[in-house]
Specification:
Layout (H helix, E strand, L loop, with lengths): L12 H16 L11 E6 L5 H12 L3 E6 L11 H11 L2 E5 L3 H10 L4 E3 L7 H15 L6 E5 L5 H12 L3 E5 L8 H7 L5 E4 L2 H5 L4 E4 L11 H8 L6 H4 L7 E3 L12 H4 L6 H19 L2
Parallel strand pairs: 1-2, 1-3, 3-4, 5-6, 5-8, 6-7, 8-9
Helix pairs in contact: 1-12, 2-12, 3-4, 5-6, 5-12, 6-7
Length: 299
């Protein structure tokens, strides 16, 4: 049984399928699901959040679990307390800790010193809960991922791309990474993903998106990249997901974006708000997967 969810690399195909089975039970609502006893999750966030923070709080409440949101700026961590000590203390008070922090190594350090399960709620390297919600959304819409081509366009080296590529590959999907030659996919995640399936890298939008069942994009300026915002917007501008790029995909393809979206930048309004967008379903499924994770880790 898994103790933490820190990385998409931690999850086997069996783990993912077990989580999705719990998601189905959550969605069906046929029976009341809850955590045993009076449990609490601490949300320790050093980075801004809307969907991840709110969805975790609501997911916990659905299971009868208390949620405490801790903005690191208002904690002793802002005054120099070591994160290892923060993790030790939170694990004395709480049953789970969800951590949103830029430095992935700091997440690992907190997990090392916690006595309770730690969940990666985003680092600069990965966003495993988002990838799980994404793949669950695709499965609900398209069925078995092993028949599908998933194209990620834009910044193919960022955290969401890393986790989505690895999670979807484990489920048998073919992945197409589409971005400028100057932006190389993370070598670890590319190599690891290729152990499970076909991963293609393209700088040609037409080749990369041709025949895609799912097309996915994300912000061109991720958290921590603000100092290079102008440079990144110029580099990725040709890889905007617009009607022309979308036309290369299958006629029944779907559009995904983890939000927040910048309309007119990485995606146009007509695409993200169009009839084939599943962005809002995708966002709702963050809450579903987080309920499943809490139930899974408490077993």
């Amino acid at each position: 049984m898994m103790r933490n969810i820190l990385s998409s690399a931690d999850l086997s195909r069996k783990n993912i399928e077990e989580l999705f089975s719990i998601c189905d039970a959550v969605v069906s609502g046929k029976r009341k699901l809850s955590l045993k006893g009076n449990q609490t999750i601490a949300l320790f966030f050093t980075e801004p959040s809307t969907r991840t923070m709110v969805s975790f709080v609501v997911a916990a409440s659905h299971l009868g679990c208390n949620a405490i949101y801790i903005d690191s700026r208002n904690s002793q961590a802002s005054r120099g307390e070591e994160l290892a000590d923060t993790a030790r203390i939170l694990s004395l008070y709480c049953n789970f800790i969800a951590v949103r922090i830029n430095d992935h190594d700091k997440l690992l350090a907190m997990a090392e010193h916690s006595k309770v399960p730690v969940i990666n709620a985003l680092t600069s390297l990965e966003h495993p809960t988002q990838a799980l919600a994404d793949c669950y959304t695709i499965m609900r819409r398209k069925g078995n991922l092993s028949r599908l081509k998933i194209a990620f366009i834009g910044d193919v080296a960022q955290n969401t791309a890393n986790s989505l590529m690895l999670t979807a590959a484990k489920l048998g999907a073919r992945i197409s990474l589409v971005g400028p030659k100057a932006c190389k996919p993370n070598s670890f995640y590319l190599k690891e993903s290729r152990k499970y399936g076909r991963i293609d890298v393209h700088d040609s939008i037409e080749e990369g998106l041709n025949g895609a069942d799912v097309v996915y994009t994300d912000t061109f300026v991720s958290m921590g990249d603000e100092a290079e915002a102008k440079k990144r917007r110029r580099m990725f501008a040709p890889y905007q997901l617009n009607s022309k790029a979308f036309s290369y995909t299958k006629k029944n393809s779907i559009v995904m974006h983890p939000l927040p979206a910048h309309r007119g930048e990485e995606v146009t309004k007509g695409v993200i708000d169009g009839p084939r967008s599943v962005v809002w379903e995708q966002a709702k499924n963050k809450m579903v997967i987080e309920e499943a994770i809490l139930l899974y880790l408490s077993r």
